[in-house]
Amino acid sequence: MTSTLRASACKNFSVLSITRRDFFCSCGIIRGMNKKLKLITYGCQMNVADSERMAGFLKQIGYSLTEDLDAADLILINTCCVRATAEDKVFGQIGRFKTLKRQKPTLILGVTGCMAQKEGADLIKRAPHVDFVLGTGQSSEVARVVQTIELERKHFVDTSNVSGDIPSEVFPLRGGQVSTFVPIMYGCNNFCTYCIVPYVRGRERSRKPEEIFAEVKQAAAEGFKEITLLGQNVNSYAGGVTFAELLTAVDKIDGVERLRFMTSHPKDLSDELIVAIANGQHICEHIHLPVQYGSNKILKRMNRVYTVEGYLKLVDKIRAALPNVSLTTDLIVGFPGETEDDFQETLDFIKAVKFDAAFTFIYSKRSGTPAATFDNQIDDETKHRRLDELMKVQNAISLEKNRALLDSVVEVLVEGASKTDDKIFTGRTRSNKLILFEHGNEQAGDLVNIKINQAQTWLLKGEVI
Ligand code: SAH
Ligand code: SF4
Ligand code: F3S
Fold it and tell me: Could you tell me which residues come within 8 angstroms of residue 300 by beta carbon, excluding any fewer than 6 positions away?
């Protein structure tokens, strides 16, 4: 038995003691055998990437992934708190595990991520069946925390280091097979007045280029064709080179067939970046450029630090340099103090820009943020009416943009069979549009040329040529 254990253990391996499921190594690490981890991830791509990294740490102590809740020894809920609806979903999910914990007392339930950072010990007060709560700056501690709980079944909470080091000591255990995320920076310094992210993700810190390159190479070696570099605001990357330089260097890594990045704050999307995209080989012509609102009064109250005119000028500059670029955005309706005139200005603004797509949100009051204390909070009915109207206008624009692509031929990265029909495959254009096509000999990960023959608001259809 010892020799099989030895094969999967660390360099300095020597077994000190063995229990039924675990054994102890002289390096202090407890290694387990065949334990199962169920990951549940809410929120943005950064959270997906963090979950995969935590799974990487947990793999080192013997956990492998399962989709089966009943088989899980550890359930990790990686949470989001950007809007109240995100938090409600998490509380609902935690509540549903109460019975499971009662049936299986050895099950460990951990809550990590942004809401864990925000709520801390209150989460355990509200839901005592949660075993541990770990903040965003301490995800590299997850394995050690789980080991402690495996030994001494007691609650553990640590949210003390919101701007903690970016873990680079293990490679993530990646999901998916074609596209993956590589975080380049964590945190945000912008403090938009509505947003909780700077409070739960800490100050901006950038990873070293070498760490990023190593991770991209590892992902490419695992067969991933598309890499998305992630940060709350990638243009303020400060790892010793500019973001444009970093992107250009990653573009040259063997195996990277497509390169994307998000998110860009309009205030610091540089000319150098536009040139880098234009000159890049695999850098996709898609920029997610959240504008949030289309009136200067509200932009100022949001602390977005650019104007409508400045944003429009930036869009013109991007489109002049990258004629095929697709632009997407985020928009919030119902921000405190929003008048009907402000809202109409926003409708006019999106008609002027013609975004390819927009993620539209109802303003959600986040306690601790400045906007939560602003006068003139907007009532729910008005918020919903404005959201519906905004979506209607944007959907018509998205459809018009997609129709303009009819009969053109686009390069598509094949993702695999669609969920509903295995004769139909899905893929993405360089502009990040979803496309469906009838499957021939294509494999997930192939790049194929497709002629577009149908355009809908949210997707395209076509045939391989
Ligand atoms: N760092 C990115 C995205 C952050 S969160 C950026 O700055 O663009 C993703 C989106 O959630 C934001 O772009 C914003 O549109 C939305 N959002 C953030 N806080 C919100 C709130 N309190 N209510 C509604 N939407 C919000
Ligand atoms: Fe939030 Fe603004 Fe930072 Fe984006 S830039 S994460 S919206 S504070
Ligand atoms: Fe949510 Fe945190 Fe992302 S609050 S949107 S998971 S950074």
Answer: none
Query: 79 CA distance to ligand 3 centroid (A)?
Result: 8
Up-side HSE of residue 37: CA atoms within 13 Å toward CB? 27
Where does residue 310 rank: exposed (0-12), middle (13-18), buried (19+ CB within 10 A)? middle
Which has the closest alpha carbon to 54: 113, 122, 127, 118?
113
Residue 45 Cα, ligand 2 centroid: separation in angstroms? Answer: 14
CA of 47 to the centre of ligand 1 (A): 14
The pLDDT, as a whole number, for residue 1 is 33
State CA 344 to chain mean position distance.
31
- One-letter identity of residue 122: D
Q: Which of 203, 264, 265, 329 for a ligand 2 pocket mutation test, highest count of atoms within 8 Å of Cβ?
A: 265
Q: What digits encode the pLDDT tens for the residues 265-309?
A: 999 999 999 999 999 999 999 999 999 999 999 999 999 999 999
> Taking the complete model, does pTM exceed 0.85, yes or no?
yes
Ligand 3 atom closest to residue 115's alpha carbon, by position in its atom list: 4
pLDDT of residue 23: 54
Bridge partners of residue 76, in order along the sequence = 39, 110
pLDDT of residue 8: 38
- Ligand 1 nearest-atom number relative to CA 364: 23
C-alpha–C-alpha distance, residues 107 and 139, integer Å: 20
Nearest CA, atom 5, ligand 2:
190
Beta strands in 315-418 (DSSP E): 326-333, 357-362, 409-417
What's residue 2's pLDDT?
34
Question: Which regions in the chain score pLDDT beneath 50?
Answer: 1-20, 28
Which domains can be identified in the chain, with CATH numbers? Answer: 35-158 (3.40.50.12160), 180-267 (3.30.750.210), 285-404 (3.30.750.200), 409-464 (2.40.50.140)
Question: For residue 193, which amino acid is it?
Answer: T
Q: How far is the CA of 78 from the centre of ligand 3 (A)?
A: 10
- Determine the distance separating the centroid of ligand 2 and the alpha carbon of 139, expressed in angstroms: 21
- DSSP tag of 140: G
What is the gyration radius of the CA atoms in the chain, in angstroms? Answer: 24
Which ligand is nearest to the Cα of residue 83, counting in written order? Answer: 1
**Ligand 1, atom 18, residue with closest C-alpha:** 195
Continuous segment of H or E residues that includes residue 463: strand 460-464
